[in-house]
Amino acid sequence: MSNPQELQNRARKAAVDFANSHSVGEFISVIDEGDNVSTYLFESKLKGYVGWAFSVSIFSDGDDTSISEVNLMPGENALLAPNWVPWSERLADYKALQAELEAQAAAEAAEASEAEEDSAEVDEEVVETEHEAEESAPATLVDEGVDAEENSDDAGKRPPRFLRRRLGRLKYKKDKS
User: How many other CB atoms are there within 10 angstroms of residue 52's CB atom?
Assistant: First the structure.
């Protein structure tokens, strides 16, 4: 059974048994591992495994052939999870970031307080100037127009029915107590 086509068919059957016929795609290539071992790669059609391939290793010694292993292996364009980082390193990075952010916040607060002190001095000068201007200007009274009284009764549209019921219940409860 050393015919390459027969070995490829046997490898495809092993991949289909491993996953299913809809998940195993086209034949990609064969890799000669040496010592009578060949690895056959088939395209993966599994959702979430774009760029991955089913890998089937076959040992063939004349008429004796056996499937060594069937795996799902990432290809060159496969999306992979990032490398695992121990908790102690992640915690140290987090603490360093927090210390840096606190230092930046303290620096910004110091700048803001300096700017606030400078603006307070300018505001005092402006307030003194406005106060002097108010003392020199004559006071005038403005009559409120009749329009303000007329508009005070305009409440707009009626509230929706469910809200009128709820408001009515609340009014009823207030009247009882």
Answer: 20
Rounded to 5°, angle at Cα 97 from 96 and 101: 120
Residue pLDDT tens, the chain, 177 long = 568 888 899 999 999 999 988 999 999 999 998 888 999 999 999 988 888 999 999 998 877 889 999 999 998 888 788 888 899 888 999 999 999 999 999 999 988 888 887 776 666 665 566 656 556 555 555 555 555 555 555 566 666 766 666 666 666 566 665
What kind of fold does domain 4-74 have according to CATH?
Answer: Nuclear Transport Factor 2; Chain: A, (3.10.450)
What is the pTM for the complete model shown? Answer: 0.48
Q: 60: which strand partners?
A: 65
User: Could you give the CA distance from residue 35 to residue 60 in angstroms, rounded to a whole number?
Assistant: 9
Handedness of CA 70, 72, 76, 80 (dihedral sign): negative
Contacts of 167 by beta carbon, 8 Å cutoff, 6+ apart: 159
103 token code pair: 């230092």
Quote the distance between the C-alpha of residue 94 and its chain's center. Answer: 19
| Sequence-ordered list of residues with C-beta below 8 angstroms from that of 33, at least 6 positions apart, any chain | 39, 57
Q: Which of 45, 40, 50, 47 is nearest to 71 (CA)?
A: 40
